[in-house]
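Team,

Forwarding the record for the chain on the shared tracking sheet. I've put the sequence and predicted structure together so nobody has to dig through attachments.
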Amino acid sequence: MVAIGWLIFVIWLSQPWIHQLSQTTGVIAAYLIIAGIAYLPGYISAFTLTSLLLDKKAELPTANPSIPITILIAARNEEKGIGETLEHIARQEYLGIIKIILIDNGSTDRTVEKARQTAERTGLSLMILHEEIPGKHNALNRGLKEVNTPFLITLDADTFLHPSAIRFLAAKLQISGPDVHAVAGSLLVQNNRGSFLARVQEWEYYLSIASIKRMQSIYQSTLVAQGAFSIFRSDAVKAAGGWPDSIGEDIVLTWKFFENNGRVCFEPAAVAFTEVPESFIHLIRQRKRWARGMIEALKQVSPWKIKDPTSRFFTGLDLVVPYIDLAYTFIWIPGLFLCAFGYFGLVGPNTLMVLPVTLIIFYLLNLYQKRLLGQLGIHQKKSFIGLLGFIFVFQMIIAPVALSGYAEEFFKQKRVWK
């Protein structure tokens, strides 16, 4: 209701802007333009802010489960990081049995040898499988056939776990109802001292992605149990048919849970450190995959097929995301340049009404994250330049890239994973 009230207020406040813009575009076009760059982003921001304010304070989970768990790691040429990934698993403060299944997906380096050596040195229970058909979903489904534990975790081969990560993730799933099919872990950036792009993404993971997941989890409708680090009920994954043949296999599987009347949560205390792209070309490829994955989910699991109203609401919001990206790319960015020449019809003072709400969200989440991560003994020094890049530049890069990803999926172009 607060978000709707904010939307009504902004529409009322924007009437002079509508009047000015409609002189050039017409009334209907003016409303459509302003909806893409102000109304819809403002509504989503107000909804997020209100939800976070109503949420409980950050507390570490107290349960200490001992349920047997299987970790699936799909790997292709991960010689560089697989040893350290396994070493972090060996340091877990978890009382239960941890089985690890490494699925080699056609590696041409020493990934398997390195993994076997590390497992022998650390005493890990490691099974190595081989799946020659390329594709992460093929590798994960090959490993799924060997899972005989109630819970399973997917972990990327270059992702390092905090010592309490598995305990907190398993505790969240254990105390949740049987209709909670998965819990997403919290990802922070591992290579945060790398390139400028890596420092920008550090803030994106720390603030933006965390705030969205935490907000969605309040309603048990986290839209992505990411493959990099999430826990699942094994029988729920099998009932959903395993991971689909999609470039966004984790997104589509999550939505399959919704279709099967399941729910998905997020545990902010279950922290893992992942490696983000440092080069522009790798970042573009990653974000195209994410954009295509969202469209795949919308096509394979339409929001109107989901019975639960909250999950239907959140998946339905993704229907307007391409429109927001379109408006940002072709209206907001050109509008900024026009501001320099004194034309404020597209972007001006009224447009900036969205910015304070967004900054308040980031400020509140920063306080939440600092308190929570402080309890875990995690203290990362973050780049101020990266913060400025995240707030003022990053979306200008990501929105056009997302549009190209949508287009690639629409025209069924070849999928590129790396």
